[in-house]
Design brief:
The complex is a heterodimer of chains A (415) and B (428). Chain A is mainly alpha-helical. In chain A, 72% of the residues lie in helices and 0% in strands. Chain A has a domain of 234 residues. Chain A starts with 12 loop residues before the first helix and ends in a 22-residue tail after the last helix. Chain B has 428 residues and is mainly alpha-helical. Helices cover 67% and strands 4% of the residues of chain B. In chain B, helix 1 runs antiparallel to helix 4 and helix 5 runs antiparallel to helix 13. The chains are: A mainly alpha (415), B mainly alpha (428). The interface between A and B is large, with 50 and 44 residues.
Chain lengths: 415, 428
């Protein structure tokens, strides 16, 4: 411990600023993201043969090659995610709406990628707030997708005003069931939700695989695919094809605000947070941890189900394979980064969505595989989960109060 | 029906059944027998025969295929089921219930096989040999889980350690030979485990978050390196390790049926047997094992008696990583002969399931691994058999069983008490 006693002494402005900075959780978040990017850059440099060749000639050329490489990687990431700022400026000046739209396409596409992250991030964050580790977002998204899709092509003759909400709700309900089971098992039998949600992921995976292969298969297609959802079930797209930006994004933002409101402005939300922090104390205070846990887990599953629903109704229109989406693990990273705050999730989901969207361009332009994003995520989780590492690297002061880090509790009604 | 019967199997786990549960179990045994007689037997002609082909290996002593009347076979099995059921109703198996439920499960599977294969022939030996092979990564992964969880560290990073092990095994195996590859895989697993250990023991990070991070990191890094190097034609030489050839154990492999099933595989299968044996002894019969398990149950007591909690947990975690790395090497060096991006396909998570199903016990995990391996092996034969259930449902079963076991619906599986709880030494 490097903490020194400073109380009572006269302190300069800088020292106060330094201590405030060290204690601020935002500092840790920003430094974690920064460190993640640095580690990613180091990896890119280390795995490039050109760099070694350049270092063979001279150290200077090695360093400059490394720098060019990293700059090229991250600038193509930026270009892919945001688009070319020069083009955007030119398009805005020209005033031609078609040109403007074209220039803004990368941003809009990034927002499309962000949308499911918003839902799943909020879902996982809500779970964490209740002391629940929902690794099952993946499975909940899958069942949400298939259920919403089913509603999308089964009910005919509905107005979009009825059909879209109905399909979204059915998707949410399917996700909620997938969340309910682990929650209920946790309170009734003490089965840890991490294991049960992982198992539920695989059950969902094989279930969808089966459904697409046989009962829900569109028989006119040669490969296993579900039928297309009906026109009336399409989530509204704001721009003509090929821009896929759809209403789901705003629904996701709204859900984040609703969850924030529930968590911080209602009694029920207070109870959720209380159970998450200390289930025993909450129980003695008269709260029903059974109800709260099951409800929180179902709600979390339902929100993750919405992610699947918005994807099929807004983007894909049909499900062709039970692919591993990766939302489950990504959303854990972004919920942790947001310190499990639903509104913080909006920012981190945007970050991850833009990263993921930009990484495709990066792979083509800079020849850096998209998986660099996963490595960035892993490092960001590492630094967020162990702030002590960040503090050591950046010579920040150790906090004067003990930090509350995200952790989950295990408890059971049945002893 | 199959679902229900699989559920019954799960009470292989040590369970103390109440008298109502005893009645239910007995009645279920008998109902299954009735089902076999009324549904399966009715479905078959009186003269239909089932052939179980027994010889897959020309080196073993050849015995004739098992050909028998399908109806007769089902009658015999139904008879056994009724016998078990009646005994359960009258006397009860008491503490041996688990074993008999296991036998009951085997009878049911046999019954379905006889029914499904009537009129044709299936390679009985071949199917079980595949089962053994498929069980290897699951069992080794489960052993890795046991090593860490028995010492109180939750390790959900087995999947990540396995994929990293598979990668290191393939690359180093291509460069320096298969054995070097195995060693590299073990070291890679250990290295990742060291990260997990430092994070969860020193920094007291939530162990599931730390494990998740390792999973994301390993799958990301291996995929990154795979796309960057292994997939490029210029570097293809890094990804052609080849795999260990099967080695028939002298004498043992000559035993008809048993030999080809258990004793004619490559080194990983034998390593699995050895590991299960060594771990069973080490964990339950040695001083080291007692200390190791104390970390998972009540570390404070061990600390009071002078056992170094942190060191023991570090060692446990590193061993767990080493074993997981070995399990990973199986994918590249034991079966495929090269690295592929998604080759572990969630086996690390099934391994967790097998660990729970096997009640955190090496022999139990082997049994669970075999069971899960069997469900995988059965799916490859489904087209031949007239099974009424689709392959996906069969593949889903391990996960359903795990949830059922974890929930204690039939029998109850309990993990170490201090699992996942960081240890904090109280300062004076």
């Amino acid at each position: 411990m490097t903490t020194t006693k400073t109380s009572g002494e006269k302190r300069s402005f800088l020292s106060i600023f330094y201590e405030e900075l060290s204690n601020n959780s935002l500092t840790i978040i920003i430094l974690s993201i920064l460190s993640g990017f640095i580690m990613g850059g180091i990896l890119v440099v280390l795995t490039d043969p050109e760099v070694y060749k350049a270092f063979g000639t001279s150290i200077g050329s090695g360093l400059s090659t490394s720098w060019k490489l990293v700059a090229n990687t991250y600038s193509s990431l930026f270009l892919g995610a945001i688009g070319d700022p020069a083009k955007i400026g030119a398009a805005l000046k020209s005033g031609d709406s078609a040109l403007i739209l074209k220039a803004f396409t990368p941003i809009l596409e990034s927002l499309v990628v962000t949308t499911p992250y918003l839902f799943t991030g909020v879902a996982v964050a809500l779970g964490f707030k209740a002391g629940l580790f929902n690794i099952g977002a993946e499975g909940q998204v899958l069942v949400g997708t298939i259920a919403a899709g089913w509603a999308g092509w089964t009910f005919t003759g509905l107005s979009p005003w009825v059909h879209v909400p109905l399909a979204m709700l059915i998707g949410a309900a399917a996700g909620a069931i997938w969340g309910f089971v682990p929650g209920w098992l946790k309170v009734k039998t003490g089965a840890h939700e991490v294991i049960t949600t992982i198992m539920m992921n695989y059950i969902a995976y094989y279930l969808i695989y089966y459904l697409i292969a046989a009962p829900l298969r569109d028989t006119t297609q040669t490969t296993p695919k579900t039928p297309m959802i009906l026109q009336s079930a399409h989530l509204y797209r704001f721009f003509p094809d090929p821009i896929r930006f759809h209403l789901g994004f705003f629904i996701a933002i709204a859900v984040a605000f609703i969850v924030w409101f529930i968590l911080f402005k209602t009694t029920w939300g207070y109870e959720i947070r209380s159970v998450g922090l200390n289930p025993n104390a909450s129980k003695y205070a008269g709260m029903s941890i059974t109800t709260i846990t099951v409800a929180a887990m179902s709600l979390s599953g339902g929100i993750a189900g919405l992610a699947g629903a918005s994807e099929i109704l807004g983007v894909t229109w049909r499900q062709s394979q039970a692919l591993s989406t990766g939302y489950g693990f990504d959303s854990i990273a972004l919920a942790l980064l947001a310190q499990n705050h639903p509104l913080g999730v909006i920012l981190t989901a945007l970050l991850f969505g833009f990263l993921k969207s930009g990484s495709r361009v990066m792979q083509v332009r800079a020849g850096v595989p998209i998986y660099i994003i996963n490595i960035l995520q892993a490092f960001i989780i590492l630094f967020i989960a162990a702030p002590a590492i960040v503090r050591t690297i950046y010579r920040l002061k150790q906090p004067s109060v003990k930090e509350v880090s995200t952790s989950t509790v295990s408890f059971s009604e049945r002893k | 029906m199959e679902n229900k019967t699989q559920t019954e199997k799960t009470s292989k786990i040590r369970s103390f059944l109440s008298s109502t549960q005893r009645w239910i179990l007995g009645i279920v045994f008998i109902l299954v027998a009735v089902f076999m007689e009324l549904v399966l037997v009715k479905d078959l002609g009186a003269t239909e025969v089932t052939t179980f082909a027994t010889n897959i290996d020309s080196n073993a002593i050849q015995i004739p295929d098992w050909v028998f009347n399908s109806r007769l076979g089902l009658h015999v099995i139904a008879g056994f089921c009724v016998g078990l059921g009646l005994f359960q109703l009258v006397r009860g198996f008491k503490k041996k219930t688990g074993i008999f439920v296991g036998i009951f499960g085997v009878l049911i599977v046999l019954g379905f096989l006889i029914w499904g294969a009537s009129g044709s022939s299936i390679s009985f030996t071949g199917m079980l040999a595949v089962m053994v092979v498929r069980s290897v990564p699951i069992t080794i992964g489960a052993l890795s889980g046991i090593l860490s969880e028995r010492a109180g560290i939750v390790n959900i990073a087995i999947e990540g350690m396995m994929i990293a092990g598979a990668f290191a095994g393939a690359v180093i195996g291509s460069l320096f030979g298969l054995w070097a590859g195995v060693l590299a895989a073990i070291l890679t697993g250990t290295l990742l485990a060291l990260v997990h250990a430092v994070l969860s023991i020193k920094y007291k990070v939530d162990q599931i978050i730390s494990g998740t991070m390792i999973n994301i990191f390993s799958s990301g890094l291996t995929s990154y390196l795979y796309l960057k190097f292994l997939q490029q034609p210029a570097h293809a030489y890094l990804n052609q390790s080849g795999f260990f050839k099967p080695y028939a154990i002298p004498l043992l492999s000559k035993i008809p049926v048993i030999g080809p099933i258990f004793f004619n595989h490559n080194i990983f299968i034998y390593l699995m047997y050895i590991l299960v044996f060594v771990l069973s002894i080490a964990l339950f019969k040695t001083k080291w094992g007692l200390r190791h398990r104390a970390m998972g149950e009540y570390p404070k007591a061990a600390d009071t008696l002078g056992v170094n909690v942190f060191r023991t947990r570090y060692i446990a975690c590193l061993l767990s990583g080493a074993v997981a790395g070995l399990g990973g090497a199986y994918f590249s060096l034991g079966s495929v002969g090269r690295f592929e991006q998604t080759m572990t396909a969630g086996r690390g998570f099934i391994a967790l399931a097998a660990m729970i199903f096997g009640n955190w016990n090496p022999v139990g995990s082997l049994g669970a691994g075999m069971l899960f391996g069997f469900s995988e092996s059965l799916t490859t034969k489904l087209s031949i058999l007239r099974f009424p259930i689709p392959a996906e449902v069969l593949l889903m079963l391990p996960y359903v069983i795990t949830i059922v076991v974890l929930a204690g619906v039939v029998g109850r599986s309990r993990g170490p008490a201090a699992d996942g709880v960081p240890y904090e030494k109280e300062s004076l």
